[in-house]
Design a protein that fits this description.
Elements lengths: L2 H17 L7 E6 L18 H9 L4 E4 L6 H6 L7 H4 L2 H5 L6 H8 L11 E6 L9 E6 L1 H15 L12 H13 L2 E4 L3 H6 L7 E6 L3 H10 L1
Antiparallel strand pairs: 1-3, 1-4, 2-3, 4-6, 5-6
Helix pairs in contact: 1-10, 7-10
């Protein structure tokens, strides 16, 4: 946690805002092992809400931390590594009961492929990127599709490789936009899920991009070069 991290994150935020059509602030998130790692000035969130709602709050200017106790959505908490994934979510039974799949076997096939942080942690820090005085594990950008296009272009600028997003309309801001880039040290694009659109008010014209710590400099360099 340092002023150097804050300065770097502010430069990231400025570069993103100059090139990407933002609907709110990019969000920095970091998994932590204990309360000792909570940065100065961060308080425990005062209500029990979903991870995606916490992302939305941070995108609108709030900064705080959460443990598993404050996470209302157990699937989201499981995906980001704050608790074990509940059995009925992990084995597909819950999603099948909601009518999302033609049969239980199909539900299990999909849930086996969902991104889940296996190394469990004590808590998560959330902050607007331009106020984050820590090195983020993942930075999430909520934007319209044209913003997603700009970020995709920033990636292919240096790599020459096509983007291969991974999403399923389930566990979007938790699994797709945090766990996936965190695990893969990459970037992932997601179109949202029912939970994030209802609970976190992700708009019909918004999508989310998760950028890992390993890829953020590459993404920023591509944005600045174009």
């Amino acid at each position: 946690m340092s002023s150097t991290d804050l300065e770097k994150n502010q430069k990231y935020a400025e570069a993103i805002a100059s090139k990407v059509k933002l609907t709110c602030k990019p969000v920095a998130m970091k998994l932590i092992e204990s309360e000792d790692e909570v940065p100065e000035g961060f308080e425990l969130i005062s209500e029990k809400v979903r991870h995606c709602e916490m992302v939305r709050k941070a995108s609108l200017g709030e900064k705080f931390y959460s443990t598993a106790e404050e996470q209302m959505c157990l699937g989201g908490a499981g995906a980001i590594g704050l608790m074990e994934m509940p059995e009925k979510l992990a084995n597909g039974e819950k999603y099948f009961s909601l009518g999302r799949f033609k049969d239980l076997e199909t539900a299990k096939k999909l849930t086996a492929k969902l991104s889940i942080v296996e190394d469990k942690r004590w808590g998560m820090i959330y902050a607007p990127l331009d106020e984050a005085d820590f090195k983020a594990d993942v930075i999430q950008v909520i934007t319209e599709p044209v913003g997603g296009m700009k970020l995709a272009q920033s990636i292919v600028y240096a790599t020459g490789e096509k983007i291969n997003p991974s999403f399923a309309g389930i566990q979007s801001l938790c699994g797709d936009a945090f766990a996936n880039p965190y695990i893969e040290n990459g970037v992932n694009f997601t179109l949202g899920c029912d939970g994030s659109r209802k609970a976190a008010d992700i708009k019909d014209n918004e999508m989310t991009i998760g950028i890992s710590a390993a890829k953020i400099d590459e993404v920023i360099s591509g944005l600045e070069a174009m």
